[in-house]
């Protein structure tokens, strides 16, 4: 079992870590513990990598930054502000966000299922 969390848009560091631990999809169960987006420069690339890893059998759980991102586009303007100030601006920039939340939502690949842990 390999567990990784708090990637925060750092694709190069994430890929390097996978190399260092010699991750092998056929031998290892990879558990990704959320916080894939925000702060770092490559949130979109990290999400693409998470999607690819999920298709190879990894389990991805939603982190508080993904939750903030989802909540940001669900009505309450305070949620958008909260996400923006917690690093969401970097994620928005990765998706060439300009002015419409619809353009962002349509460009984000939300087809992969992040799982909220059952406590």
Structure description:
Residues 2-89 form the Calcineurin-like phosphoesterase domain. This is Fructose-1,6-bisphosphatase. Pfam families: Metallophos (PF00149). InterPro entries: Ap4A_hydrolase, Calcineurin-like_PHP, Metallo-depent_PP-like. The chain is mainly alpha-helical. The chain has one domain: Metallo-dependent phosphatases (Purple Acid Phosphatase, chain A, domain 2). The chain contains 5 helices and 3 strands; from the N terminus they run E-H-E-H-E-H-H-H. The protein has a 3-stranded parallel beta sheet, with helices on one face. The longest helix is centred in the last third of the chain and has 18 residues, at 77-94. Residues 106-113 have low confidence and may be disordered.
Features:
3-stranded parallel β-sheet; 5 helices; mainly alpha; Purple Acid Phosphatase, chain A, domain 2
The tally of strands reads 3
Which CATH class applies here? Alpha Beta
Radius of gyration: 14 Å
Q: Based on Cα principal axes, name the global outline.
A: elongated
Beta-strand content bin = 5-15%
CATH topology: Purple Acid Phosphatase, chain A, domain 2
| Gap from first CA to last CA | 20 Å
Output the strand order for the largest sheet.
1-2-3
User: Structural class, from helix and strand content?
Assistant: mainly alpha
Helix content: 40-55%
Q: How is the biggest beta sheet arranged?
A: 3 strands, parallel
SSE succession: EHEHEHHH
Low-confidence stretches: 106-113
Per CATH, the superfamily is Metallo-dependent phosphatases
Q: How many separate domains make up the residues? A: 1
Averaged pLDDT: 86
Corresponding CATH architecture:
4-Layer Sandwich
Domain Calcineurin-like phosphoesterase: 2-89
Protein name: Fructose-1,6-bisphosphatase
Organism: Cytobacillus eiseniae
Pfam families: Metallophos
């Amino acid at each position: 079992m390999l567990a990784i969390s708090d990637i925060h848009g750092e694709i190069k560091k994430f890929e390097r870590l996978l190399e260092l631990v010699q991750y092998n999809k056929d031998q290892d169960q990879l558990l990704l513990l959320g916080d894939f987006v925000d702060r770092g420069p490559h949130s979109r690339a990290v999400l693409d990598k998470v999607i690819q890893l999920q298709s190879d059998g990894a389990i991805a759980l939603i982190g508080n930054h993904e939750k903030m991102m989802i909540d940001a586009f669900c009505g309450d303007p305070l949620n958008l502000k909260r996400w923006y100030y917690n690093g969401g601006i970097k994620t928005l920039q990765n998706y060439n966000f300009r002015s419409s939340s619809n353009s962002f939502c349509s460009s984000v690949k939300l087809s992969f299922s992040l799982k909220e842990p059952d406590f």
